[in-house]
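User: Could you check the structure of this?
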Amino acid sequence: MTLAKLVALVIAALLLTPISSEVSIAEIGRTLHAIDVDRTSGGAGERASADYLARKLTEYGVAHTTYDARLFLSWPGRAELDVQGIGIVRGKTAAFSAATASGGVRGSLVFDVQPARGVDRTLAFDARVRGRIPVVRGIADTEALVLAGQQAGALGVVQIDATDTLHEDIVTTTWGTPTVESAGRLPVIPYVCITKSDGERLTAAAARTITATITADVTRGWRTIPIVVADVPGRTRDFVLLATHLDAWYHGMTDTGGSVASILEMARVLQRHAAELQRGVRFAWWTGHSFGRYAGSAWYVDRFWADLDQHAVAYTNLDGPGRRGSRTNAVSATGWPGLAEYARESSERLTGRTPAAPRAPSVPFRPGRDSDSSFQGLGIPFFAIGVPGPERGSPDVDAAGRIAYWHTAEDTFDKLDLAALELDTQYRLAQVFDLATVRVLPHRLQPIAAAYVSALTDLAGAATPTVDLAKTVELARALDAAAARFDRAPQPAATADIDARNARERPGAAAARQRCVRIPRDGFDPRTQPDRERAARGGCKPRAVVTADVPYPSGPQVHFQDCAQEDVGAVRAIVPRSARATRDTSSSGRISTCGRRRVVEPSLGPRAGRAPGAR
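Assistant: Sure, the predicted structure tokens are below.
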């Protein structure tokens, strides 16, 4: 450890809140060693790791449940190209790629056909790929790439990686277990990624027509897998949701063994302080993340929709803290509009470090669709604090900006920095404890309203004469003004005021709170919404008034609709389905979440008959 790093850790320790000092790196280390196994979804290591979590939670006195979720998953196996004049080129396929028959899929390769990126972030190939196999580079959202190839009539898709290290991947746009509506989006063409060196061999021969045969071995099937959920209760039924994923590619010690151990340690410490919590903290270790496109968290939101809708006040997800090369002399803070402001303010207050200023957005805010963000349709806002990971220029960051060992068998224990993981755990614990103990939630409404104004103004400038958004923009600006007044209104002078109001709650006040909590999603006129004072007179507790149950600019009218993992434009989020002429393909990312989904259990695709997790 360098002297500069040691000094940074000492300074951080002096600035942290008392509860953070209770984090035990010894406890974290014991968990890391216990789960240092192959945690492929559906495999024995995943189940053994879930059992370990349950035993430790029992030991810590934390209430918990292990759910057995039956989910539709996929496991990639062997993949190669047999190229005319070159021979066999080994590659990697991806979870949910279509499996090929024994003879593979044969066709001519076509180069220089990078798909076009639409304003809604979707991809589209031109007609040259029909009946052929496009060879592309540099497409990170491979699920959108495969869907674009499928829609254009390609026989398969080949991607050349930016390096000679191939990473495991998943290429379905369906979010979680497919529904009867989304099953048609499952890939029906194979996908193979090859190394940069092999790609150069291919492109060198591109002057002539090249025929290749793609072989991809991929399994799809239903499995029952564990999801561990634990609760440290507070004085109310409300809770902050804190999660990570338990399953991994191979041993996955940074993605996300470190996170698994970190939030278990947070549960241990917070259980000792349960009497101090105004609202509880719920911990979840999702499975089906890497092999089912966030299937575990999607299953959970389907089954606990009402509880989440009524009581979850914020969500934070850990995915990769504590990596070797992490910047322990810095802090990161982020969140959705309305909670990002708290994330930044609290990170500086709790750590003594100023997070880097957020970059000015190039486009209106859209919630990211990754990292088990299955709760967007409920309006549960995301927030996070942490120790930033290695930056570009680090030996662990490759030419494409990825962690070099990410989603590979090299993601092993030695890639962890235990001091960075301990500090990251302390930072997150301090922030979650702060959010769980404040009497009035820090959520703000005006930044959300401002995001609507920005998105609608952007759309109005691009709209055709047949779509007049002037009235909608006017309403959004009225909402912005009303939200600003709401945020400026004084909060209760003392916590006793809140407790007294709750104690004398009259019959029917619960229904009144629900009216205040749920801003109507249709026919909303912000000029008639009650401000904080009027809402309080109507029986709303401050928590209810400042709730995050406000539709973000991610598709308010799809509150109960299935989602997808490919980009979607703001037009799709605003224009009713009946008014859209384009086919509904949904997207990578920025539309509402899955919820109230109709899932059936037929055979949803080819199965190669191999054991789950076989490589």
